[in-house]
Amino acid sequence: MIIREIQAKAILSPSKVFPYVINPYVGCQHGCSYCYARFMKRFTGHREPWGQFVDVKINAPELLLSEMGRKKPKPVWISGVCDPYQPLEERYALTRRSLEVLVGCDHPVVIQTKSARVRRDIDVIRRIPDVEVGFSIASEDETIIRMFERASSPVAERIEVLREFKAAGVSTYAFAGPLLPGNPERLAALLAGAVDSVLIDRMNYVPAVKAFYARHGLLDALTDTFFRTQSARLAKALRARGIRVNKVFDESGGRPT
After folding, report:
1. Does residue 122 lie within any of the structural domains?
2. CA–CA distance, 236 with 179 (Å, rounded to integer)
3. What CATH code is carried by the domain that includes residue 229?
4. 156 and 85, same structural domain?
5. Which of the residues 162, 176, 194, 218 has an alpha carbon 20 to 30 A from that of 134?
6. Does some domain include residue 149?
7. Cα separation of 211 and 50, whole Å?
8. Containing domain of residue 215, as a range?
9. pTM above 0.70, yes or no
10. In this structure, are 91 and 134 located in the same domain?
């Protein structure tokens, strides 16, 4: 793992998902096989394989403090192209220190991670008036998760942490994307009582993903039919449990919206 400490020029960036996004790191130790963020290498100049490098923006909290005063209150996403709670967060605490800056602002905050390390910051997160904490959970099948996500927290632990935040009065959600093979009804049952809402998304058809699916004999799970069927089953099971559902792709044609 190549780790570099860098001085970022900016930290609060525009996003197509939310008005603003904060990425305290460039690269991610989780190294998920399907990660769309590997496109970042085209702009950063890294030659290392995705998951084998991380640039640490050591001045992120200080930059955020200076930038927040110039921005109108709009939702802030933490984070878009890295996991804000990857293992290096234990050493650098850039996400925690950034959240401490956001406590004193009027911006709604949306946190997304695959790591149970987020529970460390429940004391800070509870002080943010408008905040959501979410976990990416693409399947309930731990064998499948380990195949695609080599360093994320176990599914059972992610759901346990969601329950802890919900019990603390924090809004919670799950991002069921990209949907992986598994049992949608079982996943819905696990999420019941742990989340307020679920977003469902499909896989990106990039060459690296297709090759990975082919090596593991899973090409049937990379079809429009798979995503339409799995998402419909999951949505039905979630709604039956009173959980709000949003789909991030067009079910009729299977293409992202």
Report:
1. no
2. 15
3. 3.80.30.30
4. no
5. 218
6. yes
7. 15
8. 130-257
9. yes
10. no
The one-digit pLDDT tens for each residue of the chain (257 residues) are 899 999 999 999 999 899 999 999 999 889 888 887 666 666 777 778 777 889 999 999 999 999 988 888 999 999 888 999 999 999 999 999 999 999 989 999 999 999 999 999 999 999 999 999 999 999 999 999 999 998 999 999 999 999 999 999 999 999 999 999 999 999 999 999 999 999 999 887 677 788 889 999 999 998 989 999 999 999 999 999 999 999 876 554 433 32
Residues constituting the chain: 257
Please check whether residues 14 and 87 belong to one and the same domain.
yes
